Amino acid sequence: MTKITSSVPNTSRAVVMSEVNWAQLERAMLDADIDDRLPQLLRELVPGDRVDSCLGPAIELAELRMGGAAIATAILSELVEHDLVAPAELPQSLVESEVFGLLETVRTLRELQWDTEQPDTLENLRQMFLAIATDLRVLLIVLVHKSYELRQLARKQARAARESSDPLPLSLALARAARAALDVFAPLASQLGIAQIKSQLEDAALFLLEPEEYLKIQSQLSGELQARADYINSVIAQAQDELAKNAIEAEVTGRPKHIYSLFSKMRRKGLSFEEIYDARAIRIITEDLPSCYAALGAMHGLWSPVQGQFADYVAKPKPNLYQSLHTAIVGPDGMTVEIQLRTREMHHFAEYGVAAHWVYKQSGKAGAQLQEKVDALRQALERAHARTPEEISTALQTEVFGEQVYVFTPGGDVLQLSRGATPVDFAYRVHSEVGHRCRGAKVNGRIVTLDCVLENGDRVEIITGKESKPNRDWLNPSSRYVSTTGARQRIRHWFRQQGKEAATEQGRLMVEAELVRLGAEARLAESIATALSYRNAMELYAALGFGDTTLHRFSARVLEQQLPEAVDLPIDVPQPARSGSAVSWEGIDDVLSQTAACCNPVPGDQVLGYITRGRGIRVHRKDCRNLAHSEPERIVPVQWGRATTTHPVPVRLQGHDRPGLLRDIAEAATFEGVSLTGTSASPSDSDGSVLIVTQLCVRDTAQLLRVLGRLQRVRGLIDVRRV
User: Fold this and answer.
1) 177: which residues sit within 8 A by CB, 6+ positions away?
2) b/e per residue 358-385 (b: at least 16 CB within 10 A)
3) How much is the pLDDT for 571?
4) How confident is the model at residue 418 (pLDDT cuts 50, 70, 90)?
5) Nearest to 482 by CA among 544, 550, 538, 537
C-alpha cells in the first residue's frame, strides 16, 4: 500500500475529526486580530460533506502559526477553487476585510500555469513575487496549497494504480504538476527554509514521476523497519547516557527520513541504499549554542567520527539561513549513523522557516531577514532570461534558487551573481556594453582566464577592448565562459543585430574552420545541417551566426559520424588490400609505400599516391598542397589497406596555462587509446597562455576525431587543431 505523508485526516474519521479541526482553526483564528464572527461565518459557508477537503491547507497553515487571516484565506480559496462559493456571493463584512484582499491575490496566483518547459514559468514566478511584494503571507498560502494538492493527486494516482491490473500511465497534467513541484515550489520552500513543505512536495512529486523508485526505497525502509527502529533506539539510549554524564541537557530523537532525499543522494553520489549514511540518523536538540558544541564533542568521544562527513552550518549558515551541526559516526556494530545537532531555536526555524521569523502585524509584513531573502529572489528573477527547456531548468537551478556569490567592482560596489559565475557574467551584469567589449579580467589584482569561477569577496576588474564584439565561443556550453542565462541572452541579441547576411557569412567561416580543424571533409556541412534539422547548410550558417545554435553541436555531429563518407569509386576498382600493407595500388596489395610527412594522412582520409624514384609510393592527403607542385604523371589513385599500425598526426593545442593541463591532455588521449609523442609546450609570460604541439598516434580518422573531441573538453584549451 502506497503511503504519502500528510497531516490531512482520513475520510473514515471525517465526522470526529471535523469538529476537532474546526475547534483547532477557530482557536487559531480567534488568536489573531480579525473579526470574531469570521469563524462562524466560514462554518456556514463550508458544506458538511466537504469539510475535510476544504480545511486541509488551513490546518497546515495553523500548524505553521500563520495567523487567522491566512487561515481564513486558505479556507475561502478552497471554496472558490472548487466552485462551492463565488466571490460575489461573499458577505459584505468579509469583502471589506483584509482576508478578501489576500483571497484575490491567492486566486490570481493559483490560476497561473506552471509548465517548466515553457518560458512563461519565469514570467509567472515574477508575477508571484510582484504579488507578494506587499504581503508575504500570500507566498506561504500558495506553497501550502501546492503541497496539499500534489499529495491529494498522489493519493488518487495510488488508488487508481491499485485498482488497475496494468501499469497506469501518468497524464501530462500530472507530470507538469510534479515537475513544477520539483523545479519551482520545492526549491522555493527550501530557499525560505520551510523543510516541512519542501519534503512533502518532493516526496509526492517523486511518487508521481518515478513510482517504481519511490516504492522500492519505501520497501527498503519498511522492510527493515523494526530492526532499524531497535538499532536507532539503542543509539539514542547510548547518546542520552553520554550526554547525561557530561551534564548536557538535550533532547535526542530519531530523524524521519524523506524518500526523495534518499533517492536524490543515491542518484547524486552513485550509492546504493545500504551505503546512505542518513538512512540511520538521530537528532540532538539543545537549549543553547555552547551545549550544542559540547554535545558534538561528547558524541565524537563516544563514537569514532567518519572522516570528511562533518559540516558546521552554525558558523556558516546555508543561504536559506538554516543552521545545524552535521556529523557521521561509526556506531554500534560498525554501522554508520548521521547525527544532526542544533539548538531549539535553530530547530524551530529549520522546520518552519519564514513562519518562525514572522512578525505578526495587520499588514502581514515579515522580519528583515525574510524580506531581504525574498527581495534577493525577486532580483534574481528579473535578471533570469530563458527560452528553451534546458535554459529554463538552468535558470531555476542556478540563478533563481541556486546559491549566490557576492563580488566587488573596482569602485567597491557589491554585485550578486549565481554560484559558478565567471568574469564574463560579471561584465554583462555591470552593463551589456562592458560585456561586449570584454577581452580579459583581473581578480584580486591578478590576470585570470575568462572561464575563472568567481568566489565570495573577489574584486573583479574587466579589461575591455575598443571593439564592441563578443566572442562567439562564449555561447559554447563546453567552454564554461558563461554561466548565467542573462549574459547568454545579451550575447545572442548582439549577434542577431548584425544582420542575416553577415551572420550567414560568419557561420560559414566558422563551419569551414571547424571542419579543417577536425580534419573532416567540407562536403559534410550539408549532411550535418540536415541532421540538425536545418533545411540546408545556409540555414545552419545563419543559426550559428545569430548564436541560435553552437559550434559544439555541429562538432558533436561530425564526431558522431566519425569517418568521412567514402569517396565514390568506379565499380571495377580493386578491393582494399588484405595484407598488412598501408595502401594498395591497381590491385597490388604489398606495394612499398610510406605516408608523407607534409600532411600526415591516416586511414579514412581521402588520399592519392606519388610514385617516388626508388622508394615506392608516398601517400598524401588528397588536399595536400605539395601534390599541386608534383609531376602529375607520377600521381596515382591508391586505396587504404588493412594494416593496423598507428600513424602520427601533429596537432596544435592553444589555451590558458594552468597546473595539471598537460596531465589532463594526456589522460584525455589515453582514454581514447591514443599515445602522445614529441610534446612541447611554449608558455607566454605576458598573457598566461600556452601553445602545445604534440603528435597523436592514431589508427584512423575515426579515432582521431574522437580524441580531438575529447581534447576540446579539457578545461583551459580554447583551440584544438590538426596541423
Assistant:
1) 114, 149, 150, 153, 208
2) bebeeebbbeeebbebbeebbebbebbb
3) 31
4) confident
5) 550
Instruction: Give the pLDDT confidence score for residue 570 in this predicted structure.
Output: 34
If you compute the radius of gyration of the chain from its CA atoms, what whole number of angstroms results? 33
How many alpha carbons lie under 13 Å from residue 553 in its C-beta half-sphere?
Answer: 16
Residue 160, H or E segment: helix 137-163
Instruction: Judge whether 69 and 99 are in contact, CB under 8 Å.
Output: yes
Give me the CATH topology for the region 647-722. Answer: Alpha-Beta Plaits (3.30.70)
pTM of the predicted protein model: 0.47
Average confidence (pLDDT) over 149-159: 87
- The C-alpha cell of 64 is what? 505553521
The CATH topology of domain 403-495 is Ubiquitin-like (UB roll) (3.10.20)
**Which candidate, 705, 668, 652, 651, places its Cα nearest to that of 524?**
705
- What is the model's pLDDT at position 243? 93
* Beta strand pairing call for 717-722 and 647-656: antiparallel
Please choose, from the candidates 89, 78, 92, the residue with its C-alpha nearest in 3D space to the C-alpha of residue 35.
Answer: 92
Extents of the domains making up the chain: 11-216, 220-355, 403-495, 501-561, 583-640, 647-722
Note the pLDDT of residue 12. Answer: 31
The set of cell numbers assigned to 281 is 540518523
Size of the chain in residues: 723
User: Quick one: fold of 11-216?
Assistant: Hypothetical protein af1432 (1.10.3210)
Q: Answer yes or no: are the C-beta atoms of 364 and 135 closer than 8 Å.
A: yes
| Residue 320 CB contacts under 8 Å (≥ 6 apart), including other chains | 190, 191, 192, 193, 353, 373
C-alpha to C-alpha distance for 243 and 287, rounded to whole angstroms: 13
Architecture of the domain defined by 220-355: 2-Layer Sandwich (3.30)
Using CA atoms, how far apart are residues 540 and 230, in angstroms rounded to an integer? 64
Q: What is the pLDDT of residues 86-129, one digit of tens each?
A: 777 777 766 667 777 788 877 777 766 665 555 555 555 555 55
